[in-house]
Amino acid sequence: MFSFAGALAGPALPSFASASGTVQTETNRPLAGCQAAADVSPWSFTHFMSSTVENVVIVGTGCAGLTAAIYTGRANLNPLVIEGSLPGGQLTTTSEVENFPGFPHGVDGFQLMQNLREQATKFGARFEQAQVQSVDFGSSPRRLVCGDRVILAKSVIIATGASPRMTGVPGEKELYGGKGVTTCATCDGAFYRKMDVAVIGGGDSAAEEALFLTRFASKVYLVHRRDTLRASKIMADRATSHPKIECVWNAAPVAVEGVEQGAVSGLRVKDVHTGAERTLAVKGVFVAIGHVPNTGPFAAVLDVDEGGYFKPVVGSQVRTRMPGVYVAGDCADHVYRQAITAAGMGCQAAIEAERWLAEHEG
Length: 362
Ligand SMILES: Cc1cc2nc3c(=O)[nH]c(=O)nc-3n(C[C@H](O)[C@H](O)[C@H](O)COP(=O)(O)OP(=O)(O)OC[C@H]3O[C@@H](n4cnc5c(N)ncnc54)[C@H](O)[C@@H]3O)c2cc1C
Hints:
Helix content: 10-25%
Low-confidence stretches: 1-45
Bound molecules: flavin-adenine dinucleotide
Structural class: alpha/beta
């Protein structure tokens, strides 16, 4: 059975089984393909180029990428899926997922992603452990640079997700994902019924997360380094006037406590003016200081908004201004950022890619 952990431990750039079944390694590089491409590509002398043109390359193996792999696999497109540095995506970092349809008793995040991967593999998806560093979408076929390899593709689905920003204080990493530190109130709020929790942040998302958590938690500390929230006035007013929310002003997190017990027991905070420290006795810490969409390698050639999220063309959630290039999941969605919405966008992108290929190949 496949293991994401095993994949992570594997070589950085393993041999690559191409769509035609040939295996390309350092020693049997397709020199003819490389030479042909040398006329048009500045990469050709330093990168080795696949001679195979993939029907569809999917970048990312979170809910969006793997759903796209299942759909394009079932459409006989023999998709190549690039895993990136987090095989299985963000859900592999959490334990219990209770809101993915079809699992009335919840499902382990890692297991869910393993299931999606097995399903995609069953329909012919191939996986490569690599990271896309840059792309050239101005040429046809499209080119994706992964380390010293260039992958050629007729169509591309980018599903690279968004990484939550973290504070970096001691204990945060150790207790992240199922042990009390999280970045998603919608996902994990229900696990904190009748408990005290803390939200770190001062923007709209922090205010929203705090308000959402009042449905479950007994008390919500809203920890912010200033003495007013940065959130919009309406959100700030709602949060600061809520009887269950206590604002902890001028406070910066120092450490998440509970590492020895393997579960959050408190959040240590420091007054930014006096330096005085105290511990908030909470069982959950929600870090709400924003997300960084993983769009860097593509941002020069595709439209992104001021937050760095992909901006699809008007009228579509997944189509970009580059024909045959689609985006899906959290990298193009700063609003919902849920497993099911990412999967839905992966499905849309796959159907679009399939139709585009059919139209352009006759
Ligand atoms: C702790 C936690 C708990 C959560 N719990 C829930 C929950 O209970 N329910 C729910 O619905 N949602 C939950 N979420 C949110 C959910 O995980 C995300 O909405 C979902 O994973 C988004 O899927 P995605 O495919 O868009 O991106 P991701 O899951 O972020 O996957 C991105 C993929 O892209 C790859 N990648 C990135 N850059 C590159 C690159 N340059 N080259 C190649 N590959 C690249 C990564 O390796 C990864 O495989 C949770 C999130 C977190 C962090």
